[in-house]
């Protein structure tokens, strides 16, 4: 380790930081890995290829993907409207965007379950009008995940739209481009990497989400049971091995997906000359 | 194509950016809109382009009223101050953009686009950069790419917003000459905005001086320099000595050779090169002292101190060629005689 | 001269959209309509519902639900957890930000990644890892049982899980800010003879105080509201290891709707207060 400054306090701060990180994050997290190594490969495969486990992975990843896509679409519109247009109550809406961040997930869970349950305000409406039941179905999980995904998308897209050089749009217009062409060829390609980041954050959060989902999901094995819930169930049955194997698998898949999205983002930026 | 602006006014809130502007720009000219910052010159340029709406007044391009035409249908080429190159596109795609976004019926085929873009890039001498991205270019290169991009749609009018503003001094010098030559070759009516009077005088064939949203004067660079319409123009264009005349100034003006009739309450503007100095022979009469001088290349700027009748001192600047100054054999502190060849009078 | 008659400075008008950037009215209004209904549906409606449900059986029932012993115990535990974890993570955040932004050392990016790690770990896994360390079958489980120390299904476990979950908040706010600030001001203070501590309190703290407060605010909101991680390690012992979010869950599952939403209303109020303070702090930072 090298010091390159006259600033004082390197030893105490770095010492404390590293010790604290080890104690609170590194050691507990590495237990997960060590614990998994105690399992034989066959046992591990047996746990993971169990039909109920596979179903829960399918439910978790597919609902998170759909929710992140929907949140990206609407989040982009919300960010666009908040940055570009002025209308009554804009500041109020702007501040509200972070509400899903700030609201404890358990509260979000019971509120969404209450709204979307068949006797609930929106649940009844959706059944009467469209014949669609949301709560206690995978669709309910999607709804809960959209709720918690909104701020991720809006807050990553907003600053990029805000700092977007408006003269680029004017230049495109002056060259004869229609408003649609300006959006499609100039604005969107420049905002896309940020949108991708927001999507990735929303997706990663969605896969791990627990509190806001379990009340609305119905938690029916093979149908609407998510991975985090299965981990909790295994733990409650004192099946530590099962819980550990599933948890590690989920962690690895999430990291791989994030890596993939990071690479995709690198590729997009590179291709568009932003690197 | 000629441009005619009639009665253009524009307010931002309560701030008047443009106040009843009337301006006619004949075909093929290279016009500078010159003025201090906040004078409305950029707003005027953006109104001609259709990037800004007018509160009142019409914009006519080659006799046709284009006031209500959207910027994309005005047939203008606009070069932005910071170039506004599309940073996610290569240089080639930047220049091709205007051709690619044409409605399908008018859109040329790919071969044509490729040929045309390369021809334009050759015109601006940057064809070798065609597959680079804007972030990889220098300021001067970006500037020329922005120009090529604007020319690709064959605009009837070329508008440039502070075209040299963001460049290094040395690059700026080269580009000025280059733009003048390019305009000579293409002969497309061009308007550029600048706050730098030297730049306006050097590049433009016509200069329009603006201040506080009004046109102060329009004319050729020579016209404006030799016959400034008012005190603002005289002060803004080139260097000038300003004499706010009072009664006791009569004596030294007389000695300096200026006609003294009717000067009361007037202001005299004297260009430094209209002041001639000689080493004083009679020490008693001399009221001007040489304080210092600076080399400005081929010219010498001489700082003179004139002691007023009340003991107050004021600086006067004179300019003369190097060799002429050397022949005078002057030293700091020498008393000099001063003669004013010509002055502009304003109220 | 009053504010009304003062001319608008041209600089302020940058906010105004130039002609070429204006979208057609129908586009603008439909997009605004979509955005506003989306936010209303997904954000305003849930917020309204918490309040509506909490008071659905009247104010008296609301108060009764909150003053019941289990509810009070849950509130106490939640506050206690925040009181322990937030200061610890604040001190950590400041120390980490100082070390990372003021010095160059090997493994710096690894350290930054580790600090961000808890953000990308599912809350359930965050709880699980502490079970793996301290639980009956855990690493140090036997050792703890011999000495009769309870961590899992007890308050220390809740504290640890919360510590893990809220770990990055303060550091995350401070690192980019202190990076951007640079250390010139601090170097100036040191060159004028100020001691390290003096420099920190007189130069660094005034510059970072709003960001610090912001981080503490977010850290606190999460510490009080964490559900998944805490749920795994708590054991749900009523009146003992139930935090307020867990109390809400238990009541909801027992169809005690007023009890659940009364607890939820406190947490929602916490969220609203956090948002208001957060917005105020953002204004403050923007107008600094």
Task: Give a short summary of the structure.
Chain B is an alpha+beta fold and 347 residues long. In chain B, 28% of the residues lie in helices and 32% in strands. In chain B, strand 7 (157-161), helix 5 (169-186) and strand 8 (189-194) form a beta-alpha-beta unit.
Which of globular, elongated, flat, extended, rod-shaped describes the shape of chain A?
globular
Fraction of helical residues of chain A: over 70%
Contiguous low-pLDDT stretches of chain A (5 residues minimum) are none
How do the helices and strands follow one another from N- to C-terminus of chain A? HHHHHHHHHHHHH
Oligomer: heterotrimer
Main interface pair?
A-C, 92 and 96 residues
Average per-residue pLDDT of chain A, rounded, comes to 88
Poorly predicted runs of 5 or more residues of chain C: 1-15
Number of separate strands of chain A: 0
Strand content of chain C: under 5%
**What is the terminal-to-terminal distance of chain A?**
30 Å
**DSSP strand count of chain C:** 0
Q: List the secondary-structure elements of chain C in sequence, H or E.
A: HHHHHHHHHHHHH
| Proportion of beta-strand residues of chain A | under 5%
Q: Descriptors for this entry?
A:
heterotrimer; A: 275 residues; mainly alpha; 0% strand; globular; C: 288 residues; 13 helices; disordered N terminus
Topology (SSEs and partners):
The complex is a heterotrimer of chains A (275), B (347) and C (288).
Chain A: H1 10-37, H2 41-48, H3 51-84, H4 90-96, H5 99-102, H6 105-116, H7 121-130, H8 138-162, H9 166-174, H10 179-208, H11 211-217, H12 227-236, H13 240-271
Chain B: E1 3-12, E2 15-25, E3 30-34, H1 41-49, E4 56-61, E5 64-65, E6 76-79, H2 91-100, H3 110-123, H4 139-151, E7 157-161, H5 169-186, E8 189-194, H6 197-203, E9 206-211, E10 214-219, H7 221-226, H8 231-236, E11 241-244, H9 250-256, E12 267-270, E13 275-279, E14 288-296, E15 299-307, E16 313-321, H10 322-328, E17 335-340, E18 344-346
Parallel strand pairs in B: 3-8, 3-9, 6-7, 7-8
Antiparallel strand pairs in B: 1-2, 1-4, 4-5, 9-10, 11-12, 12-18, 13-17, 14-15, 14-17, 15-16
Chain C: H1 25-54, H2 58-67, H3 69-102, H4 108-116, H5 123-134, H6 141-146, H7 155-165, H8 169-181, H9 184-191, H10 196-225, H11 228-234, H12 244-253, H13 257-286
Helix pairs in contact in C: 1-13, 2-13, 3-7, 3-8, 3-10, 3-12, 5-7, 5-11, 7-11, 8-10, 9-10, 10-13, 12-13
């Amino acid at each position: 380790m090298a010091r390159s400054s006259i600033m004082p306090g390197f030893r105490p701060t770095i010492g404390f930081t590293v010790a604290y990180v080890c104690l609170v994050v590194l050691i507990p997290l590495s237990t997960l890995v060590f614990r998994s190594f105690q399992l034989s490969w066959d046992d591990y495969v047996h746990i993971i290829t169990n039909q109920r486990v596979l179903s829960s992975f399918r439910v978790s990843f597919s609902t998170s993907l759909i929710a992140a896509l929907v949140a990206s679409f609407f989040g982009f519109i919300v960010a666009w409207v908040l940055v570009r247009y002025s209308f009554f109550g804009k500041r109020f809406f702007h501040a509200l965007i972070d509400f899903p961040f700030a609201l404890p997930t358990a509260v979000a869970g019971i509120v969404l379950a209450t709204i979307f349950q068949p006797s609930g305000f929106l649940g009844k409406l959706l059944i009467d009008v469209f014949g669609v039941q949301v709560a206690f179905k995978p669709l309910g999980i999607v709804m809960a995940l959209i709720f918690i995904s909104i701020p991720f998308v809006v807050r990553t897209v907003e600053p990029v739209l805000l700092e977007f050089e408006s003269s680029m749009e004017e230049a495109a217009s002056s060259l004869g481009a229609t408003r649609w062409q300006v959006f499609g060829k100039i604005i969107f390609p420049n905002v896309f990497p940020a949108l991708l980041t927001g999507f990735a954050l929303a997706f990663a959060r969605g896969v791990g989400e627990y509190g806001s989902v379990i009340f609305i999901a119905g938690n029916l094995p093979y149908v609407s049971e998510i991975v985090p819930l299965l981990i909790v169930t295994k733990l409650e049955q004192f099946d530590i091995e099962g819980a550990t194997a599933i948890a590690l698998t989920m962690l690895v898949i999430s990291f791989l997906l994030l890596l993939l999205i990071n690479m995709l983002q690198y590729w997009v930026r590179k291709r568009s000359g932003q690197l | 194509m000629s441009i005619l602006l009639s009665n253009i006014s524009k307010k931002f809130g309560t701030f008047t950016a443009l106040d009843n502007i009337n301006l006619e720009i004949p075909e093929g000219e290279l016009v500078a809109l010159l003025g201090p910052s906040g004078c409305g010159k950029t707003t005027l340029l953006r109104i001609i382009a259709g990037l800004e709406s007018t509160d009142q007044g019409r914009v006519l391009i080659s006799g046709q009223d284009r006031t209500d035409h959207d910027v994309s249908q005005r047939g203008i080429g606009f070069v932005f101050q910071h170039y506004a190159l599309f940073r996610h596109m290569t240089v080639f795609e930047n220049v091709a953009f205007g051709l690619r976004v044409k409605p399908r019926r008018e859109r040329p085929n790919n071969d044509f686009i490729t040929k045309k873009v390369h021809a334009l890039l050759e015109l601006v001498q940057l064809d070798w950069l065609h597959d680079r991205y804007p972030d990889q270019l220098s300021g001067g290169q970006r500037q020329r790419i922005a120009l090529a991009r604007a020319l690709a749609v064959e605009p009837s009018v070329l508008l440039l917003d502070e075209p040299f503003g963001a460049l290094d001094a040395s690059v700026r010098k080269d580009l000025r000459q280059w733009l003048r030559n390019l305009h000579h070759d293409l002969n497309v009516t061009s308007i550029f905005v600048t706050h730098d009077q030297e730049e306006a005088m050097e590049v433009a064939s016509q200069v329009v001086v603006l201040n506080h949203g009004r046109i102060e004067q329009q004319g050729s660079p020579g016209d404006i320099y030799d016959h400034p319409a008012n005190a603002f123009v005289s002060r803004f264009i080139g260097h000038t000595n300003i004499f706010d005349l009072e009664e006791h100034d009569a004596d030294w003006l007389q000695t300096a050779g200026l006609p003294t009739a009717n000067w009361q309450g007037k202001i005299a503007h004297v260009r430094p090169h209209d002041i001639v100095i000689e080493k004083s022979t009679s020490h008693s009469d001399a009221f001007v002292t040489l304080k210092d001088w600076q080399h400005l290349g081929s010219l010498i700027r001489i700082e003179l101190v004139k002691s007023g009748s009340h003991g107050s001192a004021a600086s006067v600047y004179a300019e003369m060629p190097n060799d002429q100054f050397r022949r005078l054999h002057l030293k700091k502190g020498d008393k000099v005689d001063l003669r004013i060849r010509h002055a502009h009078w304003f109220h | 001269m009053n504010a009304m008659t003062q001319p608008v400075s041209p600089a302020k008008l940058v906010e105004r959209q130039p002609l070429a950037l204006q979208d057609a009215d129908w586009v603008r209004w439909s997009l605004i309509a979509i955005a506003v209904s989306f936010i209303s549906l997904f954000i305003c409606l849930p917020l309204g519902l918490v309040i509506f449900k909490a008071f659905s059986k009247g104010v008296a029932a609301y108060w009764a639900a909150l003053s019941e012993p289990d509810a009070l115990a849950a509130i106490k535990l939640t506050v206690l957890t925040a009181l322990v974890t937030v200061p610890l993570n604040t001190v950590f955040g400041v120390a980490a930000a100082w070390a990372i932004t003021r010095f160059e050392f090997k493994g710096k990016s690894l350290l930054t990644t580790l600090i961000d790690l808890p953000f990308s770990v599912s809350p359930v896994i965050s709880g699980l890892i502490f079970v793996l360390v301290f639980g009956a079958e855990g690493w140090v489980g036997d050792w703890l049982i011999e000495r009769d120390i309870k961590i899992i299904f007890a308050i220390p476990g809740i504290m640890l899980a919360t510590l893990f979950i809220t770990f990055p908040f303060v550091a995350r706010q401070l690192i980019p800010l202190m990076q951007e600030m640079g250390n010139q001001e601090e170097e100036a203070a040191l060159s004028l003879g100020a001691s390290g501590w003096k420099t920190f309190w007189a130069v660094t703290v005034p510059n970072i105080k709003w960001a610090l407060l912001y981080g503490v605010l977010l850290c606190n909101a999460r510490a009080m509201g964490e559900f998944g991680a805490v749920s795994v390690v708590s054991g749900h012992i009523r009146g003992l290891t139930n935090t307020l979010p867990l109390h809400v869950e238990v009541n909801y599952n027992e169809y005690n709707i007023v009890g659940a939403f009364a607890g939820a209303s406190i947490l929602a109020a916490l969220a609203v207060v956090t948002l208001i303070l957060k917005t105020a702090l953002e204004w403050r930072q923007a107008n600094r």
